[in-house]
Write a structure and sequence with these properties.
The chain has 139 residues and is mainly beta. It contains one helix and seven strands. Helix content is 13%, strand content 33%.
Length: 139
Amino acid sequence: MYYRHIHNPWSEMERMQRRMLRSLALNRYESEPGFPAVNVYANDQAQIISAELPGLTREDIEISVAGEALTISGSREPEKVEEGAEYHRRERSAGKFTRSFQLLFPVDADKVEASFEDGVLHIRLPRAESDRPRKIAIK
């Protein structure tokens, strides 16, 4: 049985739409506002921030504390592809990033510690001695 191909007048428009969406997906992740993904928690002694930074090294990351804010910044180079290759999907972000967080309480900036292991950055921000809760004795 022979089936005749029926021309769809919208097929060219659909093809262009797919290409445009694919192109937007390439650029969308380069300015991702929530990068890096973080967890923030605190106790009476310190605030702890852990950030996922896969594919980066210690040298690619900068951390600063100024006033009531912590800033994590850096950059990640795009993955190199073979000559003549063309992306069909690109979800891994690349480029410069900066993310700032308002601190929950004053911290002792001289005692801030940071470690980086397996693509996860851990920052411990000790609470300033002058801001720690004190138990008041009743006389």
